[in-house]
């Protein structure tokens, strides 16, 4: 996993993958959904969403060039097209 700060990555990984905090309050991701990850940082939620359902239309945006480079690397490696 490409990252900028190991502690931040560990924290966000735990929040997204372990606690599944982004799937609370009735939020679901189903086959064929469109998901927009605005402010995607290094792409952990992008990778998570890509593994929950098939045939997603997944758009990830990150304005920070360093974080975007990690996002691209992580999406290329871990999020199937």
Please give the radius of gyration in angstroms.
12 Å
What fraction, in percent, of the residue positions are helical?
40-55%
Number of helices: 3
Strand order of the largest sheet: 1-2
| Helix/strand order, N-terminal first | HEHEH
Number of strands: 2
Mean pLDDT: 96
For the terminal residues, how far apart are their CA atoms? 18 Å
Shape: globular
Strand percentage lies at: 5-15%
Describe it for me?
With about 80 residues, the protein is of the alpha+beta class. The protein has helices at about 5-20, 45-50, 65-80; strands at about 35-40, 55-60. Helix 2 (about 45-50) links the parallel strand 1 and strand 2 (about 55-60). Helix 2 (about 45-50) runs parallel beside helix 3 (about 65-80). The relative contact order is 0.21. The mean pLDDT is about 95.
Labels describing this entry:
single chain; 81 residues; alpha+beta; two-stranded parallel ribbon; 44% helix
List the helices and strands and how they pair.
Blueprint: H1 6-18, E1 34-38, H2 44-52, E2 57-61, H3 65-78
Would you kindly provide a brief summary of this structure?
This protein is α+β, with helices and mostly antiparallel strands.
């Amino acid at each position: 996993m490409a990252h900028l700060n190991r502690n931040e990555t560990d924290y966000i990984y735990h929040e997204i993958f372990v606690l599944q905090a982004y799937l609370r309050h009735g939020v679901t991701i189903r086959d064929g959904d469109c998901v927009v990850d605005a402010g995607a940082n290094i792409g952990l939620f992008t990778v998570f969403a890509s593994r929950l359902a098939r045939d997603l239309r997944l758009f990830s945006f990150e304005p920070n060039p360093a974080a975007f480079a990690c996002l691209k690397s992580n999406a290329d490696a871990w999020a199937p097209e």
